[in-house]
Write a structure and sequence with these properties.
The complex is a heterodimer of chains A (about 240) and B (about 525).
Chain A lengths: L2 H15 L2 H24 L5 H19 L1 H9 L1 H7 L4 H21 L3 H9 L4 H27 L4 H17 L3 H4 L4 H10 L1 H9 L2 E3 H24 L2
Helix pairs in contact in A: 1-6, 2-3, 3-8, 3-9, 4-8, 6-8, 6-13, 8-9, 8-12, 8-13, 12-13
Chain B lengths: L1 H27 L2 E3 L10 H8 L5 E7 L8 H17 L4 E6 L5 H9 L5 E7 L2 E7 L1 E7 L2 E5 L8 H13 L5 E5 L7 H4 L1 H8 L3 E5 L12 E5 L7 H12 L3 E5 L3 E2 L7 E2 L3 H7 L3 E3 L2 E5 L2 E8 L2 E14 L8 H4 L3 E5 L4 E3 L5 E8 L4 E5 L22 E8 L27 E6 L7 H6 L1 H16 L2 H6 L13 H44 L1
The chains are: A mainly alpha (about 240), B alpha/beta (about 525).
């Protein structure tokens, strides 16, 4: 049961023992703070709406760069064979790697805490949409990581893993956008809206925790984790 | 081959389970509204309105089947709201969905309720076309019908629908009057947004202050600023309207703003009239450090800069006694004169809003140019000023000390109120203008809430504040703003870099220690 924790610890150490984590988090924080505070005082509103609008787009570029190495690197360096000799199941590997990446991204998200703190210092900000937005970001990150992990299991080439991961994330993110569903028939538009990562995120980041949104993210993430598991298992 | 088949079956099985779970939870409608005002849940006021229902309301939701794909979510959102009404009304509200597109008889009937098809762009089979669509509601209560002709956004549907229910069940619809001619702001032309909004709940009619009959049946009179003197007859009618219990809202300024030439002191007799009601409108303009940014052109450049004459009144400077103000984070008012309210044996007052403590007054020379307004160097000029308030009690007539107009029968004249009344006053009429209300929706909400509060109590104003804009940043100097920006840009990245360096050095030291220990062992 606890075997996945070994993988999780190994992954987190992998991030923080190399420069990756620090470069990633530093660039992420600079971008987030820059985009947010650039227009914050001009708008004059105590809301994090612009932050929650831009962050999924930053994730679209950043998360595949984190997840591309999750399995592709193991394959390239041959450490995957070493992993298979250990008493660890494929599920433990998938779950361990997934939660390792998720905790890493969650730390990056948590380090933007200076923004809500600034808002609360500067006035009486509504904390509900802020909590909802942060929860939504964790869900979006989980969905993107599961896609990236799956993409990484499909190839030994990290660049290809990055592109495949980014494209799938992009597609699922864009599905519900107005200009995509604009000229579709009602039933297809309804389906696209439901399948879209962005529409469910928009709903949560308003400050409304709807069970259907949570179930969607859990379902979406589970399917891609399961696909990653199948891919790893297939190559045993 | 068999393995691949198993994987495919497994995959299909997982998809089916996920879809089923989503479908089940989609029907359950379990959700938690984390927002401060429970913005996405029916408010207590709506629940009270629904609890008070004695008879059933029959609601018909008219929606076309051929809705363009990009607004199908709207239909779902509307149904979500309507279902909540149904639940909280204990089934006193009955809702039916009808597509009137293929029923010409129904379409004709809907036309009488004000519900018409709306033209919307649709793109189907690579072809752009304009289609006619219905998204409206009609509600039937006893022999009355009220409608919402077109629903564009479900966000304010609660307010619209609750207003509709209140209007349907009301015994009498209050009447609001406004002067048709002569005032600084021509309400009929320049305050169309306000009139539209008021018209959804009240009967709003223009009045002629010169004619006494015109004020009959008016429940609330809006009096904007006058640059010129009102005739004695008009003042008399206004005076007697107040003395006999009519509610009034004065939007009167002590300075006549002129955007082209020089702004000058307002010498209109409306100022003296208000003084007779214990309200003094000062001949000044309030400037405030708590203000709005405005865009203006400076040479060839377009600049955005703080404008001290466009005051941002923060919630902390509003009177918490008025519950409808509690949820309004800020109200933006421009070119406002300070007011003074006094007490007497029969009258008292409540201040509604004040400037910040860092405000100053312009007197005698009124500079309204955003590029040249400078705060006073001497900080003793800074202070807090009253911008709006209510005088209440039994008022004395303006004509107590003045002679009555010629054609007035002295027997009809009433010198003092017999019942307690309220007069609202704010030192500007510019907040009534469409351009201001469009740019600052909170200001419009403030005015509407105030009127609702005067005429109907708290119910509607509490619902309307849910759609309010986000709270505003408290006023800060440019240096503090720059400091906040820089700190936020660099603080967290520096923490991360320092942590990385610390960890790197620690690992290096540990590695070196390990090597040394190994060497010693060797």
């Amino acid at each position: 049961m606890n075997k996945y924790k070994y993988i999780l610890k190994r992954e987190l150490e992998g991030y923080f023992n190399s420069m990756i984590a620090y470069i990633f988090i530093t660039i992420f924080l600079i971008l987030e703070n820059f985009f947010f505070f650039r227009t914050f005082f001009i708008n004059g509103s105590l809301t994090m709406r612009s932050f929650f609008e831009i962050t999924p787009w930053i994730f679209l570029f950043f998360i595949p760069s984190i997840t591309m190495r999750l399995w592709a690197e193991e394959k390239k360096t041959g450490t995957n064979e070493l992993l298979f000799t250990m008493p660890i199941s494929e599920w433990d590997i998938v779950i361990g790697k997934f939660f390792g990446a998720l905790i890493f991204i969650a730390i990056a998200i948590l380090l933007t805490i200076n923004i809500p703190i600034t808002l609360l210092i500067l006035g009486n900000a509504d904390i509900g949409p802020i909590i909802g937005g942060y929860l939504g970001l964790v869900f979006v990150a989980a969905a993107f990581i599961s896609v990236g992990l799956f993409a990484s299991t499909t190839t030994a080439n990290q660049i290809i893993a990055y592109i495949v991961g980014a494209v799938i994330c992009f597609l699922f993110f864009m599905l519900g956008q107005q200009f995509i569903i604009f000229n579709l028939s009602a039933s297809i538009a309804k389906m696209f809206t439901f399948l879209s990562i962005s529409t469910h995120f928009a709903s949560i980041s308003r400050g409304v925790l709807d069970f259907i949104d949570i179930v969607y993210y859990i379902g979406f993430t589970s399917i891609f984790l399961w696909l990653g598991y199948i891919m790893i298992k297939k190559r045993v | 081959m068999k393995g691949k088949k198993n994987i495919f079956i497994e995959f299909a099985f997982v998809i089916v389970i996920v879809v089923l779970i989503n479908l089940i939870f989609g029907q359950l409608m379990i959700r938690f509204d984390l927002t401060k005002n429970s913005r996405y849940t029916l408010s207590k006021s709506t629940k009270t309105i629904l609890n008070d229902l004695n008879n059933d309301i029959y609601v018909e939701f008219y929606v076309s089947k051929n809705l363009p794909s990009y607004i199908i979510n709207l239909k779902k959102e509307i149904w979500d709201v309507l279902n909540e009404y149904k639940i909280h009304s204990k089934n006193r509200i009955h809702i039916k969905e009808i597509d009137p597109s293929k029923n010409p008889d129904l379409a004709r009937r809907l036309y009488m309720y004000g519900i018409k098809p709306v033209s919307i762009n649709a793109y189907q089979k690579d072809r752009a076309e304009v289609i006619s669509t219905y998204i409206g509601i009609a509600a039937f209560y006893k022999d009355k019908v009220e409608s919402i002709p077109f629903i564009q956004d479900a966000g304010d549907l609660e307010y619209k629908f609750s207003s509709l229910v209140m209007k349907l069940t009301a015994k009498k619809i209050p009447i609001i009057g406004y002067p048709s001619v002569g005032s600084e702001i021509n309400i009929a032309k320049e305050s169309t947004l306000l009139l539209d909004s008021l018209g959804k709940q009240y009967k709003v009619i223009p009045v002629n202050l010169e004619k006494e009959d015109s004020l009959k049946n008016i429940d609330l009179l809006i009096v904007p600023n006058y640059k010129v003197n009102l005739s004695d007859k008009a003042l008399y009618n206004l005076d007697q309207f107040i003395i006999k219990g009519g509610k009034t809202s004065f939007f009167v300024s002590g300075v006549n703003i002129d955007f082209q030439r020089e702004s000058k002191v307002n010498h209109s007799n409306i100022i003296d009239f208000l003084k007779s009601k214990s309200i003094t409108v000062n001949n000044d303009l309030v400037n405030d450090f708590s203000n709005n940014m405005i865009g203006f052109s400076a040479g060839q450049r377009q600049l955005i800069a703080p404008y001290p004459l466009f005051i941002k009144v923060l919630n902390k400077n509003m009177n918490p006694k008025f519950s409808f103000l509690k949820k309004i984070p800020s109200v933006d008012i421009g070119w406002v004169s300070s007011l003074f309210f006094s007490t007497s044996a029969d009258c008292g007052f409540d201040i509604i809003m004040k400037s910040s403590v860092k405000a100053w007054l312009s007197k005698n020379y009124f500079n309204i140019d955003p590029t040249t307004i400078k705060p006073p160097k001497d900080k003793t000029f800074l202070g807090q000023f009253i911008l709006a308030g209510i005088e209440y009690g039994k008022f004395s007539s303006y004509f107590k000390k003045e002679s009555l107009p010629d054609d007035i029968d002295a027997n009809d004249f009433q010198e003092k109120s017999t019942v307690s009344n309220k007069i609202f006053a704010i030192g500007t009429s510019h907040i009534l203008r469409d351009d201001i209300q469009r740019r600052f929706p909170n200001t419009k909400i403030f005015i509407l809430n105030f009127f609702d509060n005067l005429l109907l109590g708290d119910k509607l104003s509490n619902i309307r504040t849910k759609s309010i804009r986000d709270p505003s940043v408290k006023p800060l100097s440019d240096d503090i703003k720059a400091l906040i920006k820089i700190l936020n840009y660099i603080f967290m990245p520096i923490i991360v870099i320092l942590f990385g360096l610390f960890r790197y050095l620690k690992r290096k030291r540990r590695g070196r220690a390990k090597v040394e220990a190994k060497n010693e062992t060797v």
